Amino acid sequence: MEKTEWYLEYEIQHNRPGLLGDISSLLGMLSINIITINGVENSRRGMLLLSRKDEQITRLKSILETMETINVTKMRKPKLRDRLAVRHGRYIHSDIDDKKTFRFVRTELGLLVDFLAELFKKEGHKLIGIRGMPRVGKTESIVASSVCANKRWLFVSSTLLKQTIRSQLIKDEYNVDNLYIIDGIVSTQRASEKHWELVREIMRLPATKVVEHPDIFVQQTEYTLNDFDYIIELRNDENEEIKYDPIEKPKFDQDGGFSMFDF
């Protein structure tokens, strides 16, 4: 029978010597293997387990619930957040009211890169928005995640090295395995109608698109935040407020270029 992975997380009520050894021995007696173990946030510990039968997990849970020294908080098939929690020793925080919004601080860039890389590996259309103040590490995290996911990234609009505003792609750049990066502020402030035609064309591709500053992006387009599959918030610290100066829609001349008064 094929083995199944499970995620066990418990909160330590009384951290006595030998507690982990007792739990490990219990797992051994039930023929459940430990793949990975790590502390996850404060007094919690997470484990990735491997079991041949679901009955073994049911027995394990019933026994652990009788132990006064721990409180089982999760026993389930592992989600992406569970795997990353064990790998990094900390949990990804999501918005209480909006479950598709995930929050990171700059000290968690490694966790963010891992999280994005796993999202990038999934096939098909995904629209991901990233909020954050300037120089917090948004673009660098996207590029690093692309490398981890073995994806080719393309800047449709960006300011990473120099201001990039694409109005067309070459044939080889139309690939569902590519990652398309759009800076919502750059596209809004400095882009022509030809650029927006390209953006709409890319949005229709069954590929992964990442939009920096999604709130600005949706102000000037027909897209809404409901169109995004994930929203990432990256801050320098937990108390930082992400805010933007008012942005006006640029004026174009009759040829679709910039008016001289825009510069």
Automatic annotation (TrEMBL):
It holds the Pfam family DUF3388. Residues 72-261 form the DUF3388 domain. This is DUF3388 domain-containing protein.
